[in-house]
Amino acid sequence: MADYPVLTLETAPQGARPVLEASQAAFGFIPNLLGVMAHSPALAEAYLTLSGLFDKTDLTPAERQVVLLTVSQYHRCHYCVAAHSMLAEMQSVPADAVAAIRTDQPISDAKLQALRVFVRTLLESRGWLDQQDMQTFYAAGYKPEHVLDVLVGVAQKTMSNFTNHIAQTPLDDAFKAHAWESE
Predict the structure, then answer these.
(1) Residue 75: how many CB atoms within 10 A of its CB?
(2) What CA–CA distance (Å, rounded) separates 101 from 31?
(3) Residue 120 in contact with residue 70, Cβ under 8 Å?
(4) Dist CA 75 CA 42 (whole Å)
(5) Which residues contact 43 (CB under 8 A, 6 or more apart)?
(6) 112, pLDDT greater than 90
(7) In order of start, what are the domains of the chain with their CATH numbers?
(8) Cα Rg for the chain, rounded, in angstroms?
(9) To the nearest whole number, what is the mean pLDDT of the chain?
(10) Which H, E and C letters describe 90-140, residue by residue?
(11) What span, in angstroms and rounded, lies between the C-alpha atoms of 165 and 163?
């Protein structure tokens, strides 16, 4: 979208440059998402901070990718579904689990399926979970702290999903092999 061109290290506001530099160092390039978020240095920093905090939760790397991919699929974010499909592959999330999330189908791994269902229920209910939702999640092997850990991922992805919707962020070449469109 013309209002939010993808910024670079040279064109970004000074306050956003540390985030872009960190992204460049971590990924070898600056994802278009962060180039768009750089219009608001506060948003770019908040996103990167939440990402780091989500990595500190007790969820495994694969479980974190299930959360992020499920939120992105729910919000129909073409950019984040593609990006997290690639990242999930890198975190050894089973290919059938990634495909199931992308198509909103059940995952064959029971624990990852319970996580996917919990995330969707959380989103659909806007956080108004009932005791049965919690008990089902716990029965799959999760604990009360995992409920709160999931919220960090939901917050992180909601910021990026909505940014991409507003800005119509173009997909990076690095993610094009995992391109996705909602139905």
Answers:
(1) 18
(2) 23
(3) yes
(4) 22
(5) 37, 159, 163
(6) yes
(7) 59-162+173-178 (1.20.1290.10)
(8) 16
(9) 94
(10) HCCCCHHHHHHHHCCCCCCCHHHHHHHHHHHHHHHCCCCCCHHHHHHHHHC
(11) 5
159 vs 119: CA distance, rounded Å: 16
Instruction: Please tell me the total number of residues recorded for the chain in this structure.
Output: 183
Residue 114 CA to residue 152 CA, distance in Å, equals 18
C-alpha span between 75 and 17 (Å, rounded): 28
Quote helix, strand, coil % in the chain, to nearest 5: 70, 0, 30
Q: Whole-angstrom Cα distance, residue 11 to residue 33? A: 15
User: Amino acid identity of 150?
Assistant: V
| Residue 42: partners with Cβ closer than 8 Å, 6 or more residues away | 15
CA distance 124 to 108: 22
pTM above 0.85, yes or no: yes
Question: What amino acid is encoded at 118 in this protein?
Answer: F
Cα separation, 70 vs 81, whole angstroms: 8
Residue 1: pLDDT band with limits 50, 70, 90: low
In the numeric block, the tokens 């129909």 are attached to 76
